[in-house]
Amino acid sequence: MTLKLVRPGDDQPELPKASMFLRIGARGFDLGIAWLLFQGTGPAGIVMALLYILFADAMIYGQSIGKKLFGVKAIFLPTRAPVRHRDSVLRNAPFGLVIILFMMPDLGFKAFIGGTIVIGGIEAFKAWRHPQGLRLGDLWAQTQVVDGKVQAGQGELVRPEAEEARAAGRANKESES
Length: 177
Hints:
By secondary structure, the chain is mostly helical. It has helices spanning 20-40, 45-55, 65-70, 85-102, 108-129, 136-141, 148-152, 161-176, and strands at 72-76, 81-82, 143-147.
């Protein structure tokens, strides 16, 4: 199976904007997990929290644990496939920067709070105002968060090649029986 690039105007409807309530809930849940990692993993806690925030959206085929619970999914727009690790890091880089600010000597907590207010405010405002709910991280990574229920009604997302190969192998075994 090959991936097909999807361009606006190629008879592909624009994907609907996911509910901000669901997105905020999913992000809050993921921040809670990052906080638990920070508190529970000792000296490596800040690095563990940073890695979780950066890579979370690629954990479960375009879903972090919070996105899975709240029923939203991050997709890579050119192929409409679930985000990969690279896409997850790019789209979550602004939030990773906030965590890195916490690591600053002397100003750590103040820089973290300031970064959270400024970067979080810009990201939230951008997502709220954009017609598809894209924030800066989404623009950088060419991704969008969509409601999983709405997405299911508009056609299936491209499946990873490993799943396709597994499904093809099962079909061949069934036909041999």
